[in-house]
Backbone:
């Protein structure tokens, strides 16, 4: 896939070069879009380019080149920017650079071809014009811009999935942040295109906007990096504690039910010892992904230790919290984790022990919730592992019976005592 697309990109440049006549006006506009691209890459250099699949803001100068010039120019512009980024911003893997250039370049070239084909169909013919024609023309440009984004995302998703079938693309493809970023990028690109259609040099005013937007994208990525555990994508320990403490304080204030649970993978050391640390990491990521998938959006999930995760369920009645924990205990052993490298054995399935502290309207602090959940977890481990134990209280600040009790699963495979709630 990567080789094919890269070959198509190079062939497209060759074919476009053969059929594109050199015109002074085109060259002048290309000089401006290329200058803006080079200057914005240089000026945002120190902001850096994050690794992995990311979104950036260069469409502001790519869209004018794609819409107002023959496809050859945008194919070249994208290629030059990747070469420049490789040399000046971050030394990435060469084949990924070529693939990025191919994906973005071909997506824009398709948009370019489409605009050229559709422009003559507008009532006022080609060009942005003014009044109704200007509105219709920008709608056409926006349509091509959206098509470019979709084609781009689809090609990237195919490659990412090919390399890692488990990869989660949701946040980067359709998360709120991605959509806001795409919309801002597209709208600025359209304004720049409309402006450049009238006077290429006026587009220079867009330069500070690009630098500003690139910095804000980077800022968001830095904030995420400081909050998120890289191995699992869950909140890291300090962030989880801080967000969980806010929820606990709110529950105490509003007298609403809340539960805190600690989940610990059973005999995880054996996975590392037998299958290697890489396999252990893959298991950690898979358990985290399953946990995230099983919980709701408002639940607070974090990695609070090596193979220990914590989750807080706000507004959750005791029986519901116990059901959630028990469901997780049942579903995690069914996860299949692929081998970390070709030829290596696939890691085994794992079981988990979960300790829950749940209160109908408790005034426990987060520390108390955690201490009780830990006591319940200890009981789950001591009673044979692969179990959920819970400590529950129905009244505020309850100090009655705080002994951990096992939760009986519907299939009878879990605890072996009486039900908790
Ligand atoms: P138990 O059922 O009692 O919880 O046994 P356990 O083996 O899961 O617990 P133990 O505390 O003895 O070992 C936890 C292991 O988790 C030891 C450590 O090497 C491993 N671990 C901690 N963090 C990571 C990590 O980030 N990646 C990997 N692969 N292993 C980790
Ligand atoms: Mg463990
Ligand atoms: Mg542990």
Residues:
């Amino acid at each position: 896939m990567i080789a094919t697309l890269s070959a198509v990109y190079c062939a497209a440049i060759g074919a476009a070069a053969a059929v594109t006549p050199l015109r002074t006006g085109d060259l002048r506009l290309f000089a401006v879009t290329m200058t803006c691209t080079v200057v914005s890459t240089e000026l945002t250099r120190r902001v850096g380019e994050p690794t992995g699949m990311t979104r950036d803001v260069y469409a502001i100068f790519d869209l004018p080149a794609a819409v107002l010039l023959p496809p050859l120019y945008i194919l070249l512009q994208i290629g030059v920017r990747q070469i420049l980024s490789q040399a000046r911003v971050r030394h990435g893997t060469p084949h990924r650079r070529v693939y990025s250039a191919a994906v973005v370049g071909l997506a824009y070239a398709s948009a370019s071809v489409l605009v050229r084909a559709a422009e003559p169909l507008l009532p006022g013919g080609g060009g942005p014009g003014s009044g109704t024609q200007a509105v219709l023309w920008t709608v056409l440009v926006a349509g091509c811009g959206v098509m470019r984004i979709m084609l781009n995302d689809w090609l990237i998703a195919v490659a990412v999935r090919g390399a890692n079938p488990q990869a989660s693309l949701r946040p980067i493809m359709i998360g709120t942040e991605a959509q806001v970023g795409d919309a801002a990028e597209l709208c600025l690109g359209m304004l720049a295109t409309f402006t450049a259609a009238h006077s290429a040099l006026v587009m220079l005013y867009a330069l500070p906007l690009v630098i500003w937007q690139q910095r804000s994208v980077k800022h968001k990525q830095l904030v995420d990096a400081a909050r998120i555990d890289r191995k699992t994508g869950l909140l890291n320990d300090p962030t989880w504690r801080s967000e969980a403490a806010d929820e606990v304080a709110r529950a105490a204030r509003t007298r609403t039910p809340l539960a805190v649970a600690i989940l610990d993978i059973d005999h995880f050391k054996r996975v590392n010892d037998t299958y290697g640390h890489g396999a252990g990491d893959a298991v950690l990521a898979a358990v985290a992904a399953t946990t995230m998938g099983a919980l709701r959006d408002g639940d607070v999930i974090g990695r609070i230790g090596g193979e220990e995760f914590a989750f807080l369920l706000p507004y959750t009645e005791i029986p519901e919290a116990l059901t959630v924990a028990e469901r997780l205990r049942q579903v995690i052993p069914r996860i299949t984790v692929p081998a970390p490298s070709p030829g290596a054995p696939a890691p085994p399935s794992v079981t988990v022990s979960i300790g829950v502290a749940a209160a109908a309207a408790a005034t426990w602090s987060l520390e108390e919730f955690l201490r009780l959940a830990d006591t319940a977890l200890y009981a789950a481990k001591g009673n044979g592992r692969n179990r959920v134990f819970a400590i529950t209280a129905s009244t505020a600040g309850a100090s009655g019976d705080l002994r951990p009790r096992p939760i009986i699963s519907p299939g009878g495979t879990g605890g072996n005592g009486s039900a908790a709630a």
